[in-house]
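Input record, target 12 of the design panel.
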């Protein structure tokens, strides 16, 4: 998979997860695992962007 595709996939997952997180937060359920995953995705997006920049 090329870096552009990987970046798009990560962004899609991030946005999707954010929407799910907002729904779960509104019901009062715990969200720590989802929040942790969002942080992981943020880091992965940052790394892929850096790789693209360094090409």
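The sequence produced for target 12 reads:
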């Amino acid at each position: 998979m090329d870096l552009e595709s990987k970046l798009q996939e990560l962004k899609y997952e991030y946005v999707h997860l954010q929407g799910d997180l907002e729904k779960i937060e509104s019901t009062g359920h715990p969200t720590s695992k989802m929040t942790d995953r969002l942080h992981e995705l943020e880091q992965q997006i940052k790394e892929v962007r850096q790789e693209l920049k360094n090409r």
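The mean pLDDT is 95.
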